[in-house]
Every structure is written in C-alpha cells, then in structure tokens.
Amino acid sequence: MKGRVVCLLLATVFVLSISEWTESKEIRMRRNIDRSIIFNRRAAPPSWELLRRAASNEEHSFFIALPQRNLDLLEKKYWAVSDPDSEDYGNFLSQEEILQIVKPDAKAVQEVLLWLSKYGVSNIKNFGDAIRVTAAVEAVEKLFQTELHLFRHKVTGRKLRRNLGTYSIPKYLTEHISFVTGISDFIPDRPKSKRTSIKSRVSATRGVVIPATLQTMYQIPSTLTVTTNASQGPVEFQDDASISLQDCDTFDDLTNIPHQPAPTIVGPFSGEDGESILDYEYITAVGQQAHNFFWTEVDWLYEFTVNFFNTTDVPLVISLSWGWSEGDQCEIESDCRFVGGDSTLYVERVNAEFQKIGLRGVTILVASGDSGANGRTDEYCLSRQLYPDFPAASPYVLSVGATQLEPNATTSSTVAPVCKEYTCAVNGTETAVSYGVASFTSGGGFSNVAPQPAYQKSAVSAYLQSGVKLPPTTYFNVSGRAYPDIAALGTDILIVMSGYPTLTGGTSASSPIIAGIITLLNDYRLKRGLSPLGPFNPLLYKIGQSHPAAFHDVTVGDNTCTEGGCVFWCKGFYCAKGWDPVTGWGSPNFQEMLSFITSFDDRRLAQAKKTKKKNGKAKQVLSVVN
Known about the structure:
Blueprint: H1 2-33, E1 35-41, E2 48-53, E3 59-65, H2 71-82, H3 95-102, H4 106-118, E4 123-126, E5 130-136, H5 137-144, E6 147-153, E7 159-170, E8 179-181, H6 198-201, H7 211-217, E9 231-237, H8 245-254, E10 264-266, H9 274-286, E11 291-297, H10 301-309, E12 317-320, E13 324-325, H11 343-358, E14 363-367, E15 389-390, E16 398-405, E17 410-412, E18 424-427, E19 430-432, H12 435-438, E20 445-451, H13 454-464, E21 480-483, E22 486-489, E23 493-497, E24 500-504, H14 507-527, H15 537-546, E25 551-552, E26 587-588, H16 590-625
Parallel strand pairs: 9-11, 9-12, 10-11, 12-14, 14-16, 16-22
Antiparallel strand pairs: 1-7, 2-6, 3-5, 3-8, 4-5, 6-7, 13-15, 16-19, 17-18, 20-21, 23-24, 25-26
C-alpha cells in the first residue's frame, strides 16, 4: 500500500513537472511572439573588438526615453524666452515647470515601471520623461531577452557592455518607450585636436595664440574678470575625464593671467587628458574668475542632457567639443535602430532635451567639427551628399567654427613669459581655417533633420543668393538649420600639458573661447539684475543683421577639405560677406557686442518702466471709477 502511494506521488510529481515545463515553454514561446525586436547585432562595430560575455552579477546601467507630450508648446516657450523681440525674453522656467510641459501620461510610465519590477529591478531613477535603471547583467538580459558582452575600443582601450544578437521589448510597451540607450548603442569618438610641436611651427610668422592674442583681437579688456555668480564649464564624454590643475596654474603663469578658481567637478575625474585641458584652459582664460565647472559624462548626448537637466546646480554656459554625423547618431554604424525609429528620432529627442536646458537659461555652445562640410564619416568625399555634424547642426545650440591668422600677423616676445621663448601673436587678419595650415577645416553646412529656424532665414537666404559658389543642391538640405553661427581662432593654440607648452588646434579650441565671451556678457547682465543670456542664437543674429561691427567678418576660405585631406572632387561651402556656413558671422568684437546688448537692455528696461507706469495710472483710474 505504501509503495503504491509512493508510486502515485512520484507519478503525480512527474506529471506536474511535465505540466509546469510545458507551460513555461508555451509562455516563453508566447513571450517571444509578443515581443518587438529592436536590433540584431551580429559583430563588433568598427574600431571595437569583442572580448567576452559579461558576468551575470556585474551591474549595468541604461536609460529609457519615455514619449514626451506637448513638444509644440515646449518649442513655443523656448522661442518666446529666446527671442529678443518677445515680451517673454529672458523669463526662464524652473525644472518643474518645464517637466510639466512634456511629462508623459502617468499610466504609460506606470506600465514601464511595472515591467521593470517584474524582473526584480529596484535601482530605478524616474525623471518624469526618462528612467535610469541600474541592475545586474542577468536581470538586464532577461528584460531585453539578449546577451550582454564586453567590447573594447581598439585605440583608446575603453570597455563597454553592449548586446550581441537580438534585443527586444514586449510589444505592448512600444507605445510607451521612445528608445533605450545603453544596450546596443556605441559612443562616437571625439575629433582629436591637432597637437604639434611648438618648435616645428614657431618659425611661422603667425605666432602662437595665447589669451593675450584673444584679448587684443576680440577687444576684451585684459583686466576684465567676472564678479557675479556667472558660471561656465566644458562638457567631456568617454575617457576625456580629467585635467591637471597644476598644468592649468602653469598655463596661467606662462600666459600672464591670474590663477583661476578650481572647478566644481561633476562626473568621473582621474588622470590627465589633453583634449579636456584645451577646453578648460581656454574657457577659463577668457571668462576669468567665473564659477567654473568640469562636467564629464560616461555615455553620449541623450544621457548627458537628461542628467544635466535634472541637476539643480549647473553652469550657465557649457561648451561641447564633440560631435558625430547627424545621420549616424544612435550608433557608429549605419544600420542602427531604436524603438520605432533611428538616428532621426535620437536627434529630435536630444533637440527637445536641448530646449529643456535652454529654458532654464543655459547657453549651449558646440564645436562645428573638424572635417569640413563632408564630415568625418566621408573623409574622401565618396558620397554625392554632405554630412552635417550633430550636435553642431542643432538649432538650439550656438555652433562655433574656426579661423586662422594670416602670415602677416603682429607678434610679440614680451606680452607674456612664454613669448620670450615662443613668439606670440598679438593681432592679425583672420581667414577660415584651412587644411594646408591647420590639417583640418571648419565644419559647416545644413541639417537634414532640423528645419531652418526663423532667426537665421534672412541671413541664410542672403548667403544663398549672393552668387557665391555652392555645392549642387542635391548635396545639402537648403531648408535645414544652417551652421556655424560664429567663429574664433582654432589653430596654433598654446596649452600646457604634462608641465610643458604645446600647440594644438581644432574647433574644439574655438568653442570654449566663445563660451568664455558669453560668460563675460552674462556677468554684465547679472550685475544689472537681469537674467543670463540663455539661448543666444536669436540675439546673435539680430546683432549680426543690425550691428555688423560686432563681428570681424571672415570672407576668405572654405570648408571643402576634410581631416583626411583635399581631393578635387570634394564639395563644400565658401566664405562670403556677412553670414556663411564656414565661419558664421565671423569672429567677435566683444566691446561692440557688449555695447549693442547694453543699448538693447536699456531700451527694454525703459519700455518696461513706461509700461509699469502706464499700468499704474490705469489702476488708479479704475480705483476712482469704482
């Protein structure tokens, strides 16, 4: 009897186990059928190598972009606070006010959070329109039904965990998720600044560029320093996560400027990196004594913009010397995809995040790129189209091109200690930077994603109708956002690295220079109790059209060459009088720019006072009548 019972029990257990196994298999099959495959990675992308499968207990982070609402209202608000002719000019919003505009439907957010919780994920940061998740690799693989592997960059040695094979999400979530980053996307490389030996260049009659060169050429008083809480900082990605403060002090000593305040550091910080040193030494050399930041982001643009927007204490001016082809933003491969979209979706979302940041009163500056109109993804001009750079081609950033000095520059050996050994440029004529002199050309052209904003239509139209030589119209989007907006010196730039002076260059030098000038203008406005400049482009174009003396117009040069060199079939754009897609409006005249802004602010303040007085009288009359 007992034996039969045992047999029956064993049989029952066996039947149950079979039943359970069959059911789980059916569930798995149904789950696979009801999922949307987002991407299928078959191999490591270019410049990367596959190392091994990621350990199941390693922690991995990723971001989920949730669908934003009211993007038309967001843009309307953005232009209202940016347009100098708007009544709302400078009336920036709080983080909460901005988030309330774009916040997704609560039910949709809850669906995504429930999905995460089903897999035991608990380290979740809900930003309202984005979610940051950190979980064990094992949990992440189950969430996306994929395998995570470790990849290593062949040049930098940087390691990333990314998927191999397919990755997917439940189909019912596709309407609640815009895209996911940190699973399949790889981060583009930064254009490396062109470092050269000083001795190999010092014989040139141009001389080396130091802060005193910029002060003389751009009419910045040498004693001008920030006295308010005006703040600034470069933004670095990937492994460019460090500067040497000792090198910065040495740079200040050699170039005869006061030591600058140590930065507030946000993000990873270790070692020493030449790209970061260039950015930091020149933003602080121009915007002297400002509240400095040094901001690093381990991932790419979307992650940065989300983290930046959701941080309370941020710099009012930021400079990004990074970029990649606008058409290949979601990855460094051409076949990348996100949920329901591709690089265009990524660019549009980052542009929305730029608007959110701008609505807080922050000015975003971006180097226009170092590979001309053709871009880094087509250095030999093999395609019959031009490749705009992003984020330089965003209408919500101030895009900065590069110039160089003509050989007849005025030089000095006494303006700073470093000039005793290396002749320094003091003044001269600027042309667009050229491959023959600088080994790169200034990025510029027209976006294929963002339409041409109202603030630049008149200037761009004047350029296109000026008779200047243009590429075939099939090569570029004539109705797209045109860039750059402004330019500054970008070659023979002296920095101090590892204790020694060296020369470098790139639009990555030009962007922090202009950023420092924006900080000085912010300082002036803050002294008057006014708002910071925030998104600067509409005001910049107003200055360019009504007060051209605020710029040194650059009319010589082009951006037909790339970092790879020059071949006769390469197309590009040429400089012209006024604005052009090589150097924008040209380089700045700080004093004239400040003069225009001062008069502009005076008129607005007088009008506001007059309106207030008129409204006060109206209230008095209304009171008497009542």
